[in-house]
Amino acid sequence: MARKAAALFLALFLVASWGSAAEKRKTWVSQVRAYSGRAFKSIGRELSGWMVTMRKNVVSVKDGTARGVKSIQRGGRRTVASVRNTTSRMWRRTYNATHNTMTGVARTFVPVGTQVEAAAPTVAARELTAPIITPLFLRRNDIVLAWKTSTGGRPLRKSMVLDDRFIVEDAGHELYSFDPRNGVAQWVFPLPNASQRRLKARNNSVFVVANDTLFELDRRIGMPRRRLVFTFPVASDPAFDDTNVVVGGWDRRVYSINRETRVKSWTYLPMGAPEGGVALAPNATYIADVTGKVIAYVPGRRRGDWEYQADDAIRVSLVMDENHVIFPAEDLFVHAVNRFGGFRSWKFPVKGFVRQPVWVEGDRCYFSAEGDAFYAVGTEKGDLIWSVPNGGWPVAIGKDNIYIQGPDSEIWCIERTTGKKVWTVSTKPFTYVARNTTTDHIYLGSAAGDVYALYLRGDHLEKKKPVKPTKPGEEPAAPDVEKPAEEQAPAEEKAVETEPEAKEEAKAPAEEKEEPAVEEEPKAAEEEAKPAEEAKPAAPAPPGVKPSEKEEEEEEEEEF
Fold this sequence. Notes:
Blueprint: H1 2-22, H2 28-109, H3 135-140, E1 144-150, E2 156-161, E3 166-170, E4 174-178, E5 185-190, E6 200-202, E7 205-210, E8 213-218, E9 224-229, E10 239-240, E11 244-248, E12 254-258, E13 264-268, E14 278-280, E15 285-288, E16 293-297, E17 306-309, E18 319-320, E19 324-329, E20 333-338, E21 344-349, E22 359-361, E23 364-368, E24 373-378, E25 384-389, E26 394-397, E27 401-406, E28 410-415, E29 421-426, E30 432-433, E31 441-445, E32 450-455, H4 485-507, H5 515-535, H6 549-559
Antiparallel strand pairs: 1-32, 2-3, 3-4, 4-5, 6-7, 7-8, 8-9, 10-11, 11-12, 12-13, 14-15, 15-16, 16-17, 18-19, 19-20, 20-21, 22-23, 23-24, 24-25, 26-27, 27-28, 28-29, 30-31, 31-32
Helix pairs in contact: 4-5
């Protein structure tokens, strides 16, 4: 028994020893590692809890800030709206008070609805001597001195040629309307100061801007219809539709104002001063400024439909044709921009500044560059058709020719098709030549206020309205415009040919009692031929041959 117990104890001891030997021995390194692991786990749990707390705090702060900003925005909008309404009311009151004051002052001097008594011209036009009005030159080129008048000693300053009016402004700030057929002064209107922009006309009204005030005059009698006092300095030529006037100001804004109610319809703020003015179309308003930008603006929208950028300032008014907006810029190019898409159709290089709006006629565009040439360019592709070196702006247009200014006070006659120079004549001592792209008249002005009108009879324009016959089957009456001499020659030859027939009949045998009757027949034929001979213009004298003084006096009497 004792052995069995000892053996059992030994076995148990061996098992216990093997178990203790199999257990991993713990060292100080493992203990440090264990303690460090537990410490990092604890720190991690604390950091995780802190991060969760921070996220909750940040979210709460963000939500609170958003709610605060929203409340501030709502309050700010209300405040801004209140300030804007208050400012608008104050501005409207100031505008109305200023307008009423200026209107009262204007009506004190010139009551609306009454004809203004202006200083009508009392001095007859002087007899001037100039190469362009010599009888030899006029007869050679089939030109007629239509009329001459005077503005009372004041030279011309500006002019506007219409189909039925020749409107001029003299240095005395008076506006005249002359009948282009006979030079009769239709009306005179005194301006408070010199006009600031170009004269404009629309329907039955003539528009003038003077002293930042728009005067709308009746085209027929010259009486003022409306006066619109602008509250800003005018920077561009005004544009008009049926109810509004659109004009740019030096305050860098474009204004649309109702001419009847004087209420502002809309305003637009371009990048620079809108010196280039505006052009109105049914679907858009085109605005040009001194930064070289052209904008197609539709009222009611914040931004324009399109923008086009030139390389330099635009200071000349825009001109529209069917598909383009054409204008010169100070980058020495004439630009044509598609007015529906805003892309450039073409640009034409020049060697000088173009100071006046281009002239578009049909499929051609005409313009003159200072010190360069007068150009005729196609409107579709901008291709050069012809050019005239040193040519200026047109002073009249004919059926076959264009008459332009030349250097040293000259007028050049240019063929429409080829640009070839036909003749040249000096206008001295005349100091003013009206730009005219409307009629077949040349208007000249002297330093003493004399106004002469020359009618291009040999190159006259066709009538716009055809003359209707008075009765069915009857030929239409002759137009008011005089026909050239070549068209009257056949009728005159026929009248002259009847004379020998009458003489042959007179030679037939007859009784002595019938001889007086035979002698009267050629007299009658001669009397019938006299009107035709008087109507027939004298043949132009050959170059170098001076006509006699008697012939000159007779022709001057007929022309005057």
